[in-house]
């Protein structure tokens, strides 16, 4: 595990999100990657990241504006990449319900684009981030992630070669304090004395960002 990512070219889709930032911090602290490519479509978030981790000759960080819906851009970004972490997704349950095909385009078609781009570039390992909501899904977000999971697992037979790309999926619950999660919402509403609960019968499964990163590292190992 100690040298797992040393001298490797790593790309993370959706790399400006909560997981991406924790992943970058962990990788830079514990490993010596050749390149760490942050692939995302939000220029403002990339700009904010660059204030902390600058792109330079002595830094492995590289920033790539791109969308997982864009196969050509993904293929270009994946050149010489050894390991890809697929964290890009539309994750808000109500947003997916009201914009269903947008969720399909990012979470399902985008997943297939990542698969195609990594196979085309002989990427060695690919880890896709999934969710507990993909287990027996009752909403569209969970259903799109279940479909994405199926695509990634079945992609292991697409290469047909002994040294073909290896695909894995990790699922975890609600990430504590992540952008858009319920804890920041509860903290924001605590002064009102009323916390909005979606359904009293719901069980939430929690994981910290650090635990999420460690799970991905374990899957890579």
Provide keyphrases for this structure.
17% strand; 8 helices; globular; alpha/beta
What is this structure's SSE topology?
Blueprint: E1 9-13, H1 18-30, E2 35-40, H2 43-52, E3 61-65, H3 71-77, E4 83-86, H4 93-98, H5 100-120, E5 125-131, H6 140-154, E6 166-172, E7 174-175, H7 182-189, E8 206-207, H8 209-220
Parallel strand pairs: 1-2, 1-4, 2-3, 4-5, 5-6, 7-8
**Rg, please?**
17 Å
Largest sheet: spatial strand order: 3-2-1-4-5-6
**Class from secondary-structure proportions:** alpha/beta
The helix content, as a percent range, equals 40-55%
By DSSP, the count of extended strands is 8
Report, as a whole number of angstroms, the end-to-end distance: 6 Å
Overall mean pLDDT stands at: 92
Task: Describe the protein.
The protein is an alpha/beta fold and 221 residues long. 42% of the residues lie in helices and 17% in strands. Strands 3-2-1-4-5-6 form a six-stranded parallel beta sheet, with helices on both faces. Helix 5 (100-120) runs parallel beside helix 6 (140-154). The longest helix is centred in the middle third of the chain and has 21 residues, at 100-120. The radius of gyration is 17 Å and the shape is globular.
Describe what is shown at a glance.
With 221 residues, this protein is of the alpha/beta class. The protein has helices spanning 18-30, 43-52, 71-77, 93-98, 100-120, 140-154, 182-189, 209-220; strands spanning 9-13, 35-40, 61-65, 83-86, 125-131, 166-172, 174-175, 206-207. It contains eight helices and eight strands; from the N terminus they run E-H-E-H-E-H-E-H-H-E-H-E-E-H-E-H.
